[in-house]
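Why do we care about 3D structure at all? Because function follows from shape, and shape follows, mostly, from sequence. That is the central idea of this module. The next example makes it concrete: a single protein chain, its amino acid sequence, and then its structure expressed as tokens.
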Amino acid sequence: MRLKILTMCLVMLAGCSGSWQTDYETGIEASVSQGWNVTEVAVWVPSELTTTEDNSYAPNADIVWHGDPFGDRKQQVAAIVQNGIALGARSLRGSRPVKLDVTLQEFHAVTPVTRARAPSAVHNISYAIQVIDVRTGEPLTETQIIRADLEALVGDQAFEAIAVGETQKVRITRHLEAVTQGWLGIGQDMRRRFSSVGR
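And the structure:
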């Protein structure tokens, strides 16, 4: 019976397989971004985004997060996104103070059952971002959508990573830092596509 249930779950996951990406339309030239000093990263989570505590293979919600103790999942994922983006922008020490306005669209990390039993999985993360001049309130960029999908670790690989401190939160934060650096033109361009199982 357990084997039958596992097989059914894997078939369901296979139906969610596809192409994922880290992508955005236009990066910022380093000659521009290096004139900025990011004094604030403001992350807004729209009230209409759905959350769930369902520990299934592919829960149907915008926000899925089990990497912190039970609590306000919107607040928890906003803190992760804020921290990752702020780390990515921390080296900018220009003369123009700016704010990064971020609106979360999706933060769908993997559940404990997916981490333990799925053959592969992906963290689906997307948000809109815009640079604002702090002094004048003037937008300095158009609003851009950033897709920051990331392969999740599963099975033994996941538990070995956790044992050395490579938790989902650590990996996602580091990925958002790198994506932000690439978008700002001050790091490696992280844009790519990959195939995996996800929502």
